[in-house]
What does this fold into?
Amino acid sequence: MVKYVIFKDDDAGKDFNNLKKWINIIIKNDAKAAIGLIGKFISKDTDLVKYLNKIDDKKIEIFCHGYSHAGFPFLVMKYWRKNRIFPTEFNRNFKKHNESLKKYRLAESKYLKKKSITFGPAGNIWNETAVDAVLQNDFKIMFSWEKASHNLFTIPLCDNFRRENIDEFIKVYSEKKDKLIYVLQFHHATLTDKQYKILPDVISYLINEEKRVFIKPSELLSISKKDKKIFKLIAPENLM
It folds into this structure.
């Protein structure tokens, strides 16, 4: 049985240099990935736009990570012990969600060559009215820790990339190694030098030791049309 892996990287637009660094490692090591683009940066950064339009779309797929990434500061003592931003862009109401996604689509159509079919909310925080807006704006699939209740396919997240050596990564991964789809989430802007350094080893381990196949979200959606087990993992309840 084929097992798959998807690398999901968030917040494209915030740190162009680290984005290029992360993507170069992915491509150089024969992997694939999905990068979450924040829409407001498209019109502000011409270098970013040129880069995204030249990127190898056989290896890298752009997904919508919202338009503003709006949020408010809050304190998380248990995990981070420092101020963080709690994203709220897709935990409001349908009107606000629809406005954000329409802004993204408008910027996308003006500056980018390809239209994305995948959505990933900021902070992976959303409500059911966000799902309605996502469908209204012609997205087909969404990254999420939990399934949507209706009509929208979801790619199940598994882990965040936080380890700084390969042994630590393998230990954490071993708890999820039986999953048919393993989705690893990154934030290129906050990765440490040690994390960048071990990324080729992580890719090599997943390909050569775990025999996983790297795919993009659109490829997963295509596979689900023929593979009943994959379909069951990503399809909403009303389509089961």
